[in-house]
Amino acid sequence: MKNMRTNTKTLAILFGIMSTFIVGCQRNLSDEVEFAKYPNTPGVFIDGFVGGLQYFPFAGSKLNAFTVDTETRYAGTASMRIDVPNVGDASGAYAGAIFPDAGGRDLSDFDALTFWAKATQAGTINEIGFGNDFGENKYMVTLANMRINTTWTKYTIPIPDPFLLTFEKGMFWYAEGPEGGNGYTFWIDELKFEKLGTVAQPRPAIQNGEDQVVSSFIGVNTTLTGLTQTFNLASGQNQTVTVAPSYFTFTSSNVDVARVNEKGVVSVVGAGTAKITALLGGVRAKGSLTIQSLGQFTPAPVPNRPAANVISVFSNAYTNVPVDFYNGFFAPFQTTLGGADLNINGDNIIQYTNLNFVATEFKNPTINVSQMTHFHVDIQIRETIDPADFITIELGDFGPNGAFGGGDDKSGNVKFLSASLSSNQWISLDIPLANFTGLTNRSNLAQIFFISADGTSNNTPTISTILVDNMYFYK
Amino acid sequence: MKMNTDHQSKTKRLLMHLGSLVIIASGFSLMQCSDDTQKVTNFNTIVMQDEFNTSGAPNPATWNYNIGTGQNGWGNSELQYYTDRSKNVTVQNGYLIITAEKESFNGSAYTSARLLTKGKFEQQYGRFEARMRLPWGQGLWPAFWMLGADIDTNPWPAAGEIDIMEFRGQNPSVVLGTVHGPGYSAGESVSKSYTLKNGRFDTEFHVFGIEWGPEYVNFYVDNVLYNQITPADVKGEWVFNKPFFILINLAVGGNFVGAPNSETVFPQTLLVDYVRVYK
After folding, report:
1. In this structure, are strands B80-82 and B108-112 parallel, antiparallel, or unpaired?
2. pLDDT tens-digit map of A422-448
3. A283 shares its domain with A364
4. A386 backbone dihedrals φ, ψ, rounded to 5°
5. Do A138 and A211 fall within a single domain?
6. How many structural domains are present in chain A?
7. A13 contact B CB<8A
């Protein structure tokens, strides 16, 4: 419309005069002042690399997955073509690379990395983003599971807090594997940083936006996870990206209990409660981590049986057999969380919470305990013991076929009632294998269960939090 | 220097009052570049203004409320229950704040507010504008609009409706200006959208207004006049020749926007810095 055009032009002229006037009044900086300035070049790949861009594929990826394509392109004369290999391709298992500008750029005037993309088929690109420089990756940003299809579509990866990116080397990166075993090709074009002005309504989160509570001990280090930033884009869509910890400012409510560094590592230093919260770009992040520190950790008694007489599954005192997992999740009945997550001053401890039943499994290979006489385990129950509480320990043998099922599996269990249990101190159990009635075969042992719910408790858990250490068989 | 000062004050007035074509026209003559011969009526005498500088409930001399859900969600299958509670409508820190809450209330899943000047301030012709910051997210529908003051005896759409600003929370950079009348209402209304370049309506304040004279309604956002509707544009009787009253509301859901979804963040607020009417 005519009015619209002329109005804008008039305003521009007026502003021009005004800004000239204002600039003329400004006091100049002294000659001593010097600012380190890096180029604020927006382009990454337009019809070729912009600036000093380089291509570094990930180790194990198809090294030549990236080429410049002059036939298929969204605009201009060329695009980035990425060939994802088939499963079994000798040249690499996936396509993945970083595109750094070694000189660094000032991206603080932009609010997003944008590009056009399409593929030979619908797919989901595992990870794509910027800030990966094969160095500290201090300000890495990842858009996970980006859906792509066969028509050119514009994508926007928002910058979590542009203010921080005054010297960034990682311009672009991606990692994508085959789809359903098959490779395919996708193209990226007009890859550049932009000031869209429409990246808005920031909603950062830590711990995936949840208020989590964990019990812990002095000396335990825990890394914050689920660090994201969400923006509403001009399309009206919310776009969530995974962001590096350095974008956040973390705070502990009680530094005498827990401290948190810029990498999001929480260190427990005292007894009590501390809540870890975070800000990103001045906005309070949703979610928190509350540490309930129980103070000094008393380790379980260090085993002193000769290693020659021991087959160990989990102990820092012995060499352990290969373990598949410490918490195989049996949906939908199992509630137990946790596993071998605790490392307290170098001592690995298993912590189970929400226990009803849980299994440690070691079937690659199974172990032969037919020459052993006892099973040892140290358990600490992190709650008061009620009269109806119990812990059942069950051992499972997979039989000659070495696999679960097949009609040759044997198992037996031993139940410990409340009278034999105590809370918040280590209970060292040495159970004769003969007591595991029904475990008639012990040469293909593969499972150790802890169970706190059975028919006698109406399948309601009786004990929910335990620590476990030093699981081994001996003679 | 005199020249510069002069320009500055003009620019400032332009920014403050926004949309006054008189000033732009004088700017043209100063710049010696006018080729625009459009005739414009001049509205620069203020007759009503609410700057929302008194905290508490909005001034009862100017504002009434619609309460409840109307018929069929105010005719649009809207999902909110309108109240006059301070939780939904209040004046604080120089702003009128209309808040849409997600809460069960009298059978509705959301609450919000709708203010109107019916019976308190009604005017034929003039410049009507408000400076507002809009809410965001799927299913939010704020509006600054007018209805013919004879609507009780001359039902909609014959009474006429001028939507100075309507907005869909899921389209954060787009507003619409629309007129409804007999033979050109709802889906047949005369409407045009305006898209903010490199910006959004939910992150900062913008001015939404009309200049309404005999046989035209001009729609503008900030300093941009983006549409003019005249009797030639409507497929029916031109009914914009009598007094109208003002409404400001924040609807949730409804035919125009669709329902909120799981990603819609509540509460949402519509902030109004001022409402000014000139003749």
Report:
1. parallel
2. 998 999 999 999 999 999 999 999 999
3. no
4. -95, 155
5. no
6. 3
7. yes
Peptide bond connecting A332 to the previous residue in cis, omega within 30 degrees of 0:
yes
pLDDT at A26 over 80: no
A324: containing domain: 307-474
pLDDT in tens, B196-216: 999 999 999 999 999 999 999
Any CB–CB contact under 8 A between B224 and chain A? yes
- Do A347 and A458 lie in a common domain? yes
Do the Cβ atoms of A203 and B265 come within 8 Å?
A: yes
> Which pLDDT score is estimated for A343?
79
Partner residue facing B172 (CB), from A4, A11, A236: A236
Say which DSSP state B73 is in. Answer: I
Partner-chain contact B225 A4, CB within 8 Å = yes
Confidence of residue B59 (pLDDT cuts 50, 70, 90): very high
* CATH number for the domain that contains residue A129: 2.60.120.430
The alpha carbon of residue B62 is apart from the nearest alpha carbon of chain A, in Å, by 33
Residues A3-27, mean pLDDT to the nearest whole number = 44
In a domain, A9, yes or no: no
Contacts of B263 in chain A (CB under 8 A): 238
Q: Are residues A271 and A326 in the same domain?
A: no
pLDDT digits (tens, 9 = 90+) for A2-11: 344 444 444 4
- Please give the structure tokens belonging to residue A430: 């040495």
Q: By CB neighbour count within 10 A (0-12 exposed, 13-18 middle, 19+ buried), where does B124 fall?
A: middle
**Residue type at A429?**
L
Q: Which residues pair with A350 in a beta bridge?
A: A468
Q: Does B193 touch chain A (CB under 8 A)?
A: no
Looking at this predicted complex, what is its ipTM? 0.81
- Domain check: are A189 and A94 in the same one? yes
pTM as predicted: 0.77
pLDDT number for residue A333: 78
Tokens of B44: 């620069």
Is residue A360 a part of any domain in this protein? yes
Instruction: Note whether A468 and A413 are same-domain residues.
Output: yes
Given a contact cutoff of 8 angstroms between Cβ atoms, the answer to whether A258 and A274 are in contact is: yes
- Chain B partners of A4 at a C-beta cutoff of 8 Å? 224-226
Question: How many whole angstroms separate alpha carbon B100 and alpha carbon B138?
Answer: 13
Within this chain, do residues A325 and A363 fall inside the same structural domain, yes or no? yes
Q: How many CB pairs under 8 A join A and B?
A: 79
Residue B18 reports pLDDT greater than 70: no
Q: How confident is the model at residue A340 (pLDDT cuts 50, 70, 90)?
A: confident
CB–CB contact A196 B198 (8 Å): yes
| Per-residue pLDDT band at A297 (split at 50, 70, 90) | confident
Q: Establish if A448 belongs to a structural domain.
A: yes
